[in-house]
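Quick one: C-alpha cells for this chain, please?
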Amino acid sequence: MPDAFNVRLNTLENKLYQLIISRLDGDKVASKNYQEKIIELVKKGIGGFILFGGKKDEIKDFIGKIQSISEIPLFIASDIERGVGQQIKNALVFPCQMAMAAATNKNKPEDVSILRSAVKAIADEAKDVGINMPLIPVLDVNQNPDNPIICTRAFSDNPEDVAWFGSEYIKILETSGLISCAKHFPGHGDTAIDSHISLPVITKSRSDLMTTDIMPFFEAIKTGVSSIMVGHLSVPAIDSKPASLSRKIITDLLRNELGFDGLILSDALNMDALKDIENIPIECFNAGIDILLHPVDADNTVKKLLFALDENKISEEQIDEAVDRIVKIKARLQNFIMAEVDHKQHIKLSEHIIEMSISLVKHKAGLLPISDFNRVHAVLAGDKTLYESSLLRDYFRHITTTNENVIPPTPPLLKGGKGGLLKERGEMGLVEGSTEEFLDEIIVFAIFTSISAWKGKSGIDDEQSHQITELIRKAKISIVISFGSPYVLSRFKEADVLIAAYEATEQAQKAVIRCLTGEKDFKGKLPVILNIKP
C-alpha cells in the first residue's frame, strides 16, 4: 500500500468504505442536502461513485469538489459505452459498440485509425468531466438474438472480433490514464434474460464458455485491462452459485487460472438477479470480489461487513488484500488531469462513424437510391417514445405509425389515397383500405428499438411484426430499416431491402437518409449473423 494512503486508511471502517462504489445521481447534485449526503460518504472513506445523469457543468464542478475533499482519489465510474452523453446532458453521444464494429474493417489501417480516434475522443470527454473509471468495454459475445440487455452493446457475435475491438478500446483507455473495465465476466451474451430483472442461466459447457464467452476476457487480461466486472449470471457448468458470488468463477477461474491480478468488481448490487440471496456483500467478498458496485445503501453494507468480521465470516486479511489492489490502482489517479476537448471535431468524428456503420443487409438491384420521396410512404414502428419525435417526419410527406392496440381483421394498409394520409382523432395508425392505391408505392418501415436496463426486451412485439409483415406482402417495394437491434430484420426476410442502423439517434437517422438518396454509400458490415440472403 502506498505510504501516502497508509495513514488515511488507519481504521477498519475506512478500509471497508474503500471497497464500495456507491451511486451518484447527477440530477440531484444541485441540491445542498444531497451534496452533504455525498460529502459525508467521502469523509467516511468511500471508494468512489458510479455516476448516473446530470448536467455537464454541474457534474464537472461537483466531481472536482469531492475529489478535493477526499484524502484518497475517488473512483468516478460510469456506464459510458456510447460516450459521456449516454449519461450526462450537454455531452456528446458516440456510436454504440456494435455500430463501431460495423463501421470498422480491422484490415484497413484508415478504418482502425478512425476507431482509435473515436475511443480517444470518448476517453478525453470522460476526463473532461472527471470520470476516471469508464465501465467499458463490453466484452460479451452476443450470440442470442433475443438478448434484451446486451444486443448492440456488444461488438459482435464473433469472439475473435469482440476480443480485437475490446483490446483496441483497452489500450487507448489505459494510455489515456483511465481505468478500463471489461464486462460482464464470464459472459452475458448468450441469454434472453436481463439480469436487472432475474438471474440468467448460461447453459453452455465449460469448454464452449472458454472458447467463446471467456476468450475475449483472457485477451483483455493480456492487453492490460485494469478491472473486470463479474455479471450476475448462473453458469452451472462451473458452479451452482451465481458468478458474482462464486469463488470457483472469481478466484479459481478469473484470478488463478486466467491470471488476472487487477480489480474485480461485482455488477450492480441493486439488481434483481440476486434478490432472493441473503448477505450478498459477504458472499461477493468471500468469492473474491474487490469492489462492491452500487449497493442499495453504502452505510448499511459497511455495517454488514463489520458484523461479518465479528462473526469470523470474513477476515481482515481478505480486506487488506482487496484494499491493497484498490489503492495500487488509485496511485495512478493522483496525477489525473481533466482533458481539454475539441467538441466540434468529436461531433464530426461521431457522425462519420455513424455514416460508415449503416449496413445494407439485403437489396434488389435497381431499387436504390430513391429518387422521388413523394412516392414513399413511411411507417414508424417499435418504441413510440423513440419515433414520436423522429426527424424522419421532416423527410417523408406521407407518414404513419403502427397502432399497437389494434390487430386489423384484414391486411392493414395506409389510409388516405394518393393525396396523402388521413390523421383521425389525433392518432396515426395502420387501418384497413384498398390495396390498389399502393401497387406503385414504396413503403419504408422504420423500426425503432433500444436497449435499457429493466426493460426486458430488445425487439418489437408480435402484433407490430404481424402488421408490418402483412403490409410488406401488399407493397410493390418494401424497405425495412432497423434503428436499434439488427435482429429485428430477421422477422422481415420477404422485404425487398433490409437496412441496419444500430441506434435511434438523430445522427443515425440522418445517415440512413443520406444512404437512401445516394448521397452516401452503404459502407457498414453487419457484425452479427442474421441468416438472410443478400
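The chain has two domains: 3-340, 358-517.
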